[in-house]
Structure formats: structure tokens, C-alpha cells
Amino acid sequence: MWFKNLQIYRLPANWDMTPERLEEQLAKKPFHPCGSQDMESRGWLSPLGNDVLVHAVGRQWLIALGFEHRLLPSAVVKQEADERAEELAEQQGYRLGRKQMKELREHVTQELMPRAFTRRRRLHAWIDPADGWLVVDAASQSKAEDVLEQLRHTLDGFPLTLLRTEKSPMSAMADWLAGNEAPAGFTIDQDCELRSVTEDKAVVRYVRHPLEGDEVKGHLEAGKLPTRLALTFDDRISFVLTEKLEIKRLDFLDVVRDQIDGEQQDKEALFNAEFALMTGELAKLLPAVVEALGGEIRAEAAAVTAQPAAAGAPASSAQTDTAPAYDPPF
């Protein structure tokens, strides 16, 4: 149980929720396979494969959202519908009109759907109710939004906010590279992406390449800004920080993993040990990242900043819950 990517959100510290209440509410929308005429199904699964939807280890919780999607490409439907349309045209002596073709494609879709293959996937989310973290193991914010949307539809109340920091990741990463100095507790690794803010949108990527020296500084002086930067925290966790405050390519180094003896534990004990170790390390990493970005903007301050210019106009919930903390200038 090791997360690979982190999409990070904020809950109120000491969120008024218990594992038992969360379990009860998630059980209202469990995962079921697709019905014969369903293109997609989603619902809550047990992270451990038993009947428990909220896997609690100490004060840390793990939940999982399951998806099943039918693989019925539109090209397959079109091909089958076109072949049937040709047969009907020969029988009737005239070609089908646009409305008739639309109805034929719908009929073919309904006929083929029960025979289509299905593909399943799941997304995990870690909840730390005491310190107010909700982290989705997803490669993009759009995928994480699937989990957040399902939680909104499932829970009686879901007081989620964005993680906002005083400095944008882009400007902070530019400062670190320009000064060739990582923030306290971090080291700069050898992967980086810089993107121009001008119309040409030129991109420079460094992979396993030293980032100190005049070359990278020259790109910064020319107006390129870092959108990704590889870092290591406390010689224990390596990752890539993005301009959207995402953490990608998360890797717990051997000094962390070697604390677990997998050969002497059963499946559940090993799962629990890995989850406890992972969340313990992330509970140190996340505050350190926030501190390196100048500290957190509290929800009250963020709400004031997000108010529309027109007096009395309602604030957009999409801005509060789903928009990225920082929009890149390109």
C-alpha cells in the first residue's frame, strides 16, 4: 500500500466524523458491476477486499472508489450501423436519412452493450481527520475529482477546501533553482521542466541532469518558469513537485521500506504496516512542503480572496472546491 501520486486537499482539523459514521454513509453507495445497459458504474469498495469500506489504522483512514466501464468504441458501433444501413438500403431501394441513422446507431449500441468487455479500476484516498488532510492517489486533478464528486454525493456534509499556500509552487521552484538552494529538509534532484510564458510556449526538460550552474539560470533569466522539479525530503522520500501543487512519482526510499519485514507478516498485517508507515512519512512531508511554499493560507483568508468583485454576488463553489490552487500563466 504505497501511493504513487498525491492530489492534496484540506479538511477542517478535527473534522466531526468517525470511522463508524463514514462507514455507514459510504455503505449507501456501494460499488456494483455495470448493468446490461450501463456504460459505467462507480461506488465504494473495501480497500482490503473484505466488507469494511473504511480501513482505519490508528487515526488514519483509507477508502477506495471502484469504477467499471464498458469498452464499446464508437467506431465499432458506427461500423456495425453502417453495414446494417447498407443492407436496409438494398432492401428498401433508398438510403436511410439522418434521423433513421441516429435511431439505428442507438439500437446497435443497446444491442452490443451487454456483450462489451468491461474494465475495472479503483482510486484510493487517505483521510487524516485530526490534521485535516484528504489525499487522493491520482495522477491528475480531474481523476481525483471523481472521488471528490462521489464523496459529495455520499456524505451528509463534506467541508473540503483547496490547499493554498502563500507562494505558488512555480515561483518557489524558480527561487530554489536560481539560488541553487533547496528549502530546509529538501534536496534538489536532477529532473526538471521549464516552460516559457511567451506565445511560443517553449519547453525544456532535464532528466538525470545536474541542475546547478548557468544553463538552468539562463533559461530562468530568459523567462522560462519551472513547472516540475524533482526533490528528495529528509533522504527518505523522493518526488516531483508540479506547478499545480501536485506531488508525482512519489517513491519511499529503502531507508523507509526496510523498516517492514514482509516475510514475517500475513497479508493484512503487511497492508496495515505499509499504510501506517506511509501515512506517518506523509504526515511529515506535507507540512514541510507547505512551509517551503511560505505557509498555508487559511480557509477564511482564501474565502475572502475568492469573493467576486460585484457586491453581493455569490461565490462559485467550483472555485472553492475544484479549481487548482494556482493557474499557470500559459
TrEMBL record:
It comes from the Bacteria. Residues 309-320 have a biased composition (Low complexity). Keywords: Cytoplasm, DNA recombination. It holds the Pfam family RdgC. It is found in: Cytoplasm, Nucleoid. InterPro entries: RdgC (IPR007476). This is Recombination-associated protein RdgC. It comes from Thauera sinica.
